Amino acid sequence: MQGFPMGPGAKPAPANAPAGADPVKDGTDASFMADVIEASRNVPVIVDFWATWCGPCKTLGPLLEKAVRAAKGAVRMVKIDTDKNPAVAGQLRVQSIPTVYAFFQGRPVDGFQGALPESQVKQFVDRLVQMAGGAAGGPDLAQVLEEAKQLLEGGDPQQAAALYSAVMQEEPENAAAYAGLIRCLLAVDQTQEAEQMLAEAPPALAKAPELAAIRTQLDLKKQAAEAGPVGELQAKVARDPDDHQARYDLAMALYANGQREPAVEALLEIVKRDREWNEQAARKQLVKLFEAFGPTDKLTVMARRKLSSILFS
């Protein structure tokens, strides 16, 4: 990797996972993106669709909770009352309850309908635990990747790069580590080297979502550079708050200046005022920003909640 000291001989100490948190929680339509989709990037998440009037739900729910807690953090569970929260159940085409879905790395990977005996519930949870243990190099490498991510976000790209390099030594085709190295280059303004590394990605990694996110980030950077002066665009929006094009350009200008949260807020305001404007351009641009920030970024999680609140209101 040109121009950036990677420290390939580094021997990182894996971060300890947080202890004491209950892996079972109640969820809602509004919290689904954060509680399930985003959380499943790191650990499988079981979603139990139930209702208070459902007899089989009262049998299945406690069995699921018991098996999930026995897994000691290797899997999580979110309980959604479909009477109070019908939107996500409708989107997932839940026809009857209880219905159970399992999500991992942002997508559904398993599921079943109806009550099951305890032995089958345990087998279901065990499969998810084994799936997570065999992904992304196992739990230890996942912890190292998380530590590297925190270092990068905390302003230490050099040490983060050392950890990403250590992961690459163990798994040369680990997409998260390869993408992390590219982000380290971008963090120290070595854009040309980052673009070269992206272009030269091995075939096994070229189409990985992590690298697609970086391509989106670079595209946004080029688009933002053409947005215009922030001051002039702020004045235009102040004169006419319904000038959605001006607010859209302002969002990109703010993004170009490193003001990520104000940029996101400007796009959310467009969605709030007119979600269909320019073929949902603001919503689509928000999705690009989320992809560029990364699914577990605090701003991504916060903004997705706000966007869901607007769209489901």
From TrEMBL:
Entry GO MF terms: protein-disulfide reductase activity
Residues in the signal sequence: none
Keyword flag Ribonucleoprotein: no
Chain ranges of the Thioredoxin domain: 11-130
Low complexity bias locations: 1-22
CDD domains documented for this protein: ybbN
Region (Disordered): 1-24
Pfam families assigned to the protein according to its UniProt record, in alphabetical order: Thioredoxin, TPR_19, TPR_20
CC terms in the record's Gene Ontology section: cytosol
Keyword Disulfide bond tagged: yes
Coiled coil: none
Keywords, in A-Z order: Disulfide bond, Electron transport, Redox-active center, Transport
Taxonomic superkingdom: Bacteria
InterPro entries reported in the protein's UniProt record: Thioredoxin-like_sf, Thioredoxin_CS, Thioredoxin_domain, TPR-like_helical_dom_sf
GO biological process terms on file: cell redox homeostasis; response to stress
Family: Belongs to the thioredoxin family.
Record's protein name: Co-chaperone YbbN
Organism of provenance: Aerophototrophica crusticola
